[in-house]
Amino acid sequence: MRAPIEKLPAVVEVLRRFGARRIFLFGSAAGDPEHAQDVDLAVEGIPLRSLLAADAAAFRILDYPMDLVSKEDDPAFYEMIRLRGKVLYEQGCA
């Protein structure tokens, strides 16, 4: 099943409402959405207290397996993603 990449603009918008200042796509959906088993996203700026709600809201839009990684929760992993991931949104650049 193909990853629903066409729904990412709506996901970006909902994550921005939760406070995301940067959003990256990484993993298999970034490189080969036709064969991706899930959608991996990394965010910066969403408060930890809102992360679960943001994850649930993004999942409702995608309706597809996904993982949401937060800079605030795992800065080292986020930095790795930031260097290799595909930028979907950066505050001030949209």
Report mean pLDDT, rounded to a whole number.
Answer: 94
User: What is the fold-level CATH name, i.e. the topology?
Assistant: Beta Polymerase, domain 2
Compute the number of structural domains: 1
Sketch the topology as an H/E string, one letter per element.
Answer: HEHEHEHE
What share of residues is helical?
40-55%
**Sheet having the most strands:** 4 strands, mixed
Overall geometry comes to globular
Level-2 CATH architecture: 2-Layer Sandwich
The stretches of 5 or more residues where confidence is low (pLDDT under 50) are: none
Going by helix content, strand content and strand pairing, the class is alpha+beta
Number of strands: 4
CATH class, named Alpha Beta
Q: End-to-end distance, in Å? A: 30 Å
> Which band does the percent of strand residues land in?
15-25%
The total of helices stands at 4
Q: Strand order within the widest sheet?
A: 3-2-1-4
Radius of gyration: 12 Å
What do you see in this structure?
The chain is built from 4 helices and 4 strands. With 94 residues, it is α+β, with helices and mostly antiparallel strands. Strands 3-2-1-4 form a 4-stranded mixed sheet, sandwiched between helices. It is globular, with a radius of gyration of 12 Å.
Brief descriptors of the model:
alpha+beta; 94 residues; 4 helices; Beta Polymerase, domain 2; 4 strands; four-stranded mixed beta sheet
Summarize the structure.
With 94 residues, the protein is α+β, with helices and mostly antiparallel strands. It contains four helices and four strands.
